[in-house]
Amino acid sequence: MIFITGDTHRSDLGRFQHFCILHPELSKRDYMIVAGDFGGVWAENTLEHDLAPFSALPFTVLFVDGNHENFDLLDAFPVEEWQGGRVHRIRPDIIHLMRGQVYELEGKRIFTFGGATSIDRAMRTEGVSWWRQELPTCEQLDEGLANLKRCGNHVDVIVTHSCGERAFAHMAARRLVGGKGLYPENHLLSNFEDVASFGHWYFGHFHADARLGEKYTALLHEIVQIS
Predict the structure, then answer these.
(1) Which of 29, 38, 71, 181 is 20 to 30 A (C-alpha) from 77?
(2) Residue 35 in contact with residue 114, Cβ under 8 Å?
(3) Mean pLDDT, rounded, for 173-179
(4) Nearest to 207 by CA among 142, 149, 162, 147
């Protein structure tokens, strides 16, 4: 089975306790995708301590990167091929799904693209609590478009940290984005909306659980199964 949830920020694991009780059949062959701001790869000196609670979960944890990640530490892990796309394998049961990749999981084609703008950047320190790599690049956009083209521009699921302009408009209409305007990643992600057909698009970042029309879902604490 494949499930998706929102930001975990390293220690926000309470949502999984009740979930695991309800699903005693879960195993490491099942997947939980975190839609960015995973946070478990944050400090080298506490890495084992930070990752241990995730490895203790009965399923395999997959995550796209958000904006609150230590990208220097994350990028230090070797890149390998997994299920059709490139990944950082953090642990055997914790895997970073990289930007612009298409994976084949349990018969589902899943496109991933992390990254976003930290609106609290002014309160953070570069290289300590904020990294420039949080923002997607044109090269990553091109790689994502090329990978989509290779699969006929059709995927079953898109998982990102932020969202494109159409989903953002839904969020704004429901006043789920406060006074925030569009950011560069919203424009960039709209390129994928323009070229790809997809079953559903899930994203985190906005700290809300909301179904937005037929095609988009914002996630925080909610856990959704891909049927």
Answers:
(1) 29
(2) no
(3) 83
(4) 162
